[in-house]
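step: validate -> pass
step: tokenize input -> pass
step: predict -> running
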Amino acid sequence: MSETVFRNRGHADIPHAFVLGVAGSPRKGGNSDVLVRQILKGVADCGVRSRGVQLRDYQYQGCIGCEKCRKTGVCKGLKDGMTLIYPDFLAAQGLVLVSPTHTYNITAWMKAFIDRLYCFYDFNDHRPRGWSSRLAGQGRKAVLAAICEQPDAADMGFTLEALRYPLEALGYQIIAELPVFGVFDRAKVKTQEAVMQQARQMGRALAQALSA
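step: predict -> pass
step: emit ->
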């Protein structure tokens, strides 16, 4: 499937009502993992299939700016773990991104993942270059969550924006966002009943939006 999608220089194959959940924390069994699972439970409540991935389980790196994807429509400059993620990413009409806050921003794992989505843009040769996303117009939708140890919203910095802006540029509609503050200990978010309810409801809202 991946070769067929990657060679398409028009729009990528139309995705279906399947949700990919992506956790960007390096800590196994941490709060990001818990939130992704909880959101996907909400997706399952509505009968929509899903899969969760933890980026720490994949060996990959950020975009190296080789620009080979401008000719091929697929990342050809690197052959690594992202090759295993691309097929599910393309197939999923729904996307869940969750990251803890690292120094006012998303983690390096999540940043590298997002940067590797650069291959889905088309550019012209003017300066500054005009661009468009081959994923636009496909009804793709997403929900986002960020977890911050500090209770002050200012300490979350740009975490949610760093998730939101790239997805909107790719053509995703953001259905809901969940900022979580004052949580650090491993899986401690499980004790936050209101947060867990919100996360599950976000999953339901995403599934319902995909089915509308």
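step: describe -> Residues 2-211 form a domain with the Rossmann fold fold (CATH 3.40.50.360).
step: cleanup -> pass
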